Amino acid sequence: MPICILSLLLLLFSAFAIVPTHSARASGAQASGLQIGDSATAQGVNTTTYQPINRTQTFKATDLYVYSWVEFVNVVSPSHNVTWVWKTPWGQVYTSFSATIPDPGSGRHYPKYFNYGYIDLAGYRSALLPGAWQVDILTDGTLDLVQNFTITCCQPNAMTPQEIRNIYDVTPLVQSGYTGKGVTVAVIMTGVNSTFYSDIQGFAKSYGLPDTNLTVVQPFGANGTDIEPPSGETTADVEWVHAMAPDAPILLVLTGQGNRLLDGFSYVIDNKAADVATMSALWWYTGQSGESMANSYNSEYAKSVPENITLIAASGDGGANNTYPWNGGKSWTVNYSQPYMLPAYSPYVTAVGGSDVSVTPTGGSIVSEIGWNQSGGGPSILYPQPSWQKGTGVPNNGFRDVPDVALDASKSTGYITYFQNGLGGGAWGTSLGSPTFAGIIADIDQAAGHRVGFLNPTLYSIASSDPSSFRDITSGCSIVDIVSTIKTGYCASQGWDFVTGLGSPDAVKLLHHLAPQATAVTTTTATSPSSTTTSTTTNSSSSTSASNSTSTTTTSTATTSTPIPEFPSASALSLALFLTTVVIVTVLRIRGPGARESPDRRSGE
Fold first, then answer.
1. Are 278 and 253 in contact (CB under 8 A)?
2. How does pLDDT run across 508-537, given as a tens digit for each residue?
3. What is the distance between the alpha carbons of residues 267 and 304, in angstroms, rounded to a whole number?
4. Angle of the 263-270 helix axis to the 287-302 helix axis, nearest 10
5. Residues 467 and 502: beta-carbon distance below 8 Å
6. pLDDT for 24-39, tens place per residue?
7. What's the fold here for domain 168-321+338-353+377-472+501-555?
8. Whole-structure pTM value
9. What span, in angstroms and rounded, lies between the C-alpha atoms of 75 and 19?
């Protein structure tokens, strides 16, 4: 199911205030004919006095802006160009813009000019890039001033990799060396956009992850693989597999524009190309031909079982029976009375639904968790109930019931992403849970020393024998659209339910069941830098860090070999007071004013 990404509104302001009588507060170097007096980074600028407000070099995600303020004194002929170049913590050009101070000979000569520009944090955006930033200020092409400031982590309403690891108890696995090493995870999507490679590199650098070990294949040709619809989907999928399994090789299977997306799983199975495969899209077919097509795909996916390949997919963002028309149109169930939804509804695929998590202000500790109101779930009208799908809460209805598990999907928290050279934002939806869970399973594969394979029978067995392996979610209801009327659909309850399945996974407890010989060690740093406390959890006295990948297509391509393009510069237009505005809006469902939504993935579109 397409993810939901925050809108990006990047405002680049540059302004000059002309002050006829004042002397410079301080003198600076005059390398280009422009003499710098005072300068500062600040939270604002008074538009009457043109003086900086709240000078500081530290900015939080909740601050609205970062201002770069400069005073030029004793300006001489001719006219001068001033350029601001904003650089991220690793030296990438985030953006740049320029303005002109007129020639004093033009009759508009003043002894002092106040100049400022700013970037918009807007409460949650540039916290994607925590760390030490700098602004290079060039006058007439010469670097005359460097301003330094820090953006502190983290973005409200979007959780970082470490916070998500904490929530699902993945941190002990990573601390124990179970990082997906040697386990190939396939991500199935249609295409990538022009900044994809620099985006995944930027995400890794922002959050202290190693470079992504990425291989890209186009099994059905290159047509359409240079388009990423919905914008940001492929990027977020790869980033969040990498966040949970930082050493796992990722195989990106690009199927192109057309009806070949569901064939991505088939490619992985037929070529034994990966150990775990994830897909974030939800397709449906209708009518007699649709039933035949859905059964054909299901037969293909059944081949993953003897190959021990784990298939994981998003359950959808359409609420009860995926009826909610989140693209703003009519409910598709009004038009299609018998939709056959894939791949999540296949019994050979682990379907990941959505929850709504509340965390502590510092992140990483759960305050509460309820079912997400748009979590896709319900009975399949095509596939019979598998023998393994039983337990507390599972209805005896004769149908394959979805979802199997749930991870955070709500926009109230969401997942941090790096998109369009850092200009993305928080993302939410069940399609974030699918790659996140795939990364967790990759860590467990490594710990087990082999593929854990077809998950569903084991997950339901674990839930029966050790219910604490899943955080049972007992409140929160999904919505249902009945002829464009929104009503309450299914509700979370004790045990399994149509909103959250078995609940949200505890990675350490799943490790004990799926890799019983593995040991998970948690290391907590105490107040003294040299003091640590270590605890070990295990189901046996033996441990292993063995890894085993049987992928036949693991040609590693490190993203560090891909150059990072600069963000286009914005040109200043006039003296006095002016602004340059660049608006970039993703084509996904967007958080914020002017939100719009992209359509679901449908057969035949």
1. no
2. 999 999 999 998 876 443 222 233 333 444
3. 11
4. 30
5. no
6. 233 334 445 578 999 9
7. Rossmann fold (3.40.50)
8. 0.70
9. 12
